[in-house]
Automatic annotation (TrEMBL):
UniProt GO MF annotations: DNA-binding transcription factor activity; sequence-specific DNA binding
Domain HTH araC/xylS-type: 154-255
Listed name of the protein: AraC-type DNA-binding protein
Pfam families: HTH_18
Keyword Cell division recorded: no
Sorted UniProt keywords: DNA-binding, Transcription, Transcription regulation
Length: 268
């Protein structure tokens, strides 16, 4: 269930959801996107690792994943409960006091990033209702925001990221913000940890996830999704999903939305 984000936090928290899911034990895929992922599990520690990298595996009461271009794996016993937050790149500066680039490709805990928030998991655990837990979480984030310098990257970098996410060509974006392509690349890497092309690739994949789900629900095709999202063809879409999600779109749907796939797979 999604939760309302207070106005003061909206530039920094793109999405906040409380989750309580019961089902078969297994592995949940944490897919790449343009937001940092902040998870506060309840009831059991989060068992998370980058796909194919057992060295990165950790079990913790908090998890912050920087921007990445590979899937994460979250192992669970069938009951998943806690809070999921999608943080903007500005949110890394505002809530943790560092640019998103500083933790790109990393899996960290609050102890690593924000010692003043290290007691947040137990504070959330101490509450028995979701409204009370949400209130504790939002109060802690608002306090962290006021304790740090919330000044973000240059306005033109934010504008460039927004245009890249919408699919504008890198050269066009560089002209728009008045920088050379090299200078724009340096600024985007310094802010996000990804090059403009990498950021754009992840953004397009993120958009394709929404279209894949919508197409499955209405009986559309992957070829249609590829065309709408700017992929050369369905094969290009499939390659990007294998690289960034570690599976085809149909596998992701079957794992995450089994009811949607109950009637069959994509036609065409």
């Amino acid at each position: 269930m999604s939760e309302a984000v207070p106005a003061a936090l909206r530039p920094y928290v793109a999405w906040l959801a409380a989750y309580d899911v019961v089902g078969p034990a297994g592995v949940h895929r944490g897919l790449p996107g343009t937001s940092l992922t902040f998870v506060l599990p309840i009831g059991a520690k989060l068992d998370v690792a980058w796909s194919g990298d057992p060295v990165s595996r950790r079990s913790a009461w908090s998890s912050v994943a920087g921007l990445h271009a590979a899937p994460a794996e979250i192992r669970h016993d069938g009951h998943q409960e806690g809070f999921f937050l999608a943080l903007t790149t500005a949110g890394a500066r505002a809530l943790f006091g560092l640019p998103a680039a500083a933790i790109a490709g990393e899996l960290l805990e609050l102890d690593d990033l924000a010692p003043d928030l290290r007691h947040l998991p137990e504070q959330v655990h101490d509450e028995s209702s979701w409204p009370a837990r949400t209130a504790v979480l939002l109060r802690a984030l608002t306090s962290a925001l006021s304790a740090r310098d919330a000044s973000g990257a240059r306005a033109e970098v934010g504008r460039a990221l927004a245009r890249l996410a919408r699919g504008a060509a890198v050269a066009e974006v560089a002209d728009d913000v008045g920088y050379s392509r090299r200078h724009l690349r340096n600024l985007v890497v310094a802010e996000t940890g990804l090059s403009p092309k990498e950021y754009q690739r992840v953004a397009r994949f993120e958009t394709s996830r929404e279209h894949v789900l919508a197409a499955a629900r209405r009986g559309g095709t992957l070829a249609e999704v590829a065309a709408v999202c700017g992929y050369a063809d369905q094969a290009h879409l499939a390659r990007e999903w294998r690289d960034l999600a570690g599976c085809p779109p149909t596998t992701w749907l079957r794992e995450e939305f089994p009811d949607v796939q109950a009637g069959g797979v994509f036609a065409g």
